[in-house]
Input
Amino acid sequence: MRKIITAPNDIENALAQQGFAPIAGVDEVGRGPLAGPVVACAVILPEGFVIPGVNDSKKISEKRREELAAKIKQTALAYAFGIIDPQEIDEINILQATLKAMSNAVSALEIAPRIALVDGISAPNCACEVRCVKKGDSASHLIAAASILAKVLRDNIMRELHAEFPDYAWDTNKGYGTAAHIASIRRLGLTPAHRKSFCKGVFA
Output
């Protein structure tokens, strides 16, 4: 009988009992926007440790994400990021950019994990074993923690880009294709922070 996951770290506990430790959770944000990088995070928390409130970053308010990100960083044994810029996304496509960002994040960890739990169905190339978890940011506490750190970092990057290119309102839309963002592209053109391969349809 297949085990039903009822606790936020059931997957991690089961793997730890099988001798897989330390375990890293890995997630990415920013696959869909028209502008900005794709950002991945890998995080290792103390075995069995649960931070109350950690969940899929998309289900948490911005203020709460920032509060939780601070707690995750304080608690984590290690965390690291992988960032792929828009130019490279255009060169290698978003799937390969996402996998590279995840791989880079795992490689940058100061503690080498025995296994990496990755959100989704595509496995990045890592030195450790990789296990893909569908809807992992809801099923795995570690993946959810990684999603929060990645989201907070990417949002901060988009605010910095907004200061450089204020006409595109990246402080609020974070690079996604809102009606106002698309209107600004049509009026002002593309910036170096735009993904040209994502914006072709804007001018159609």
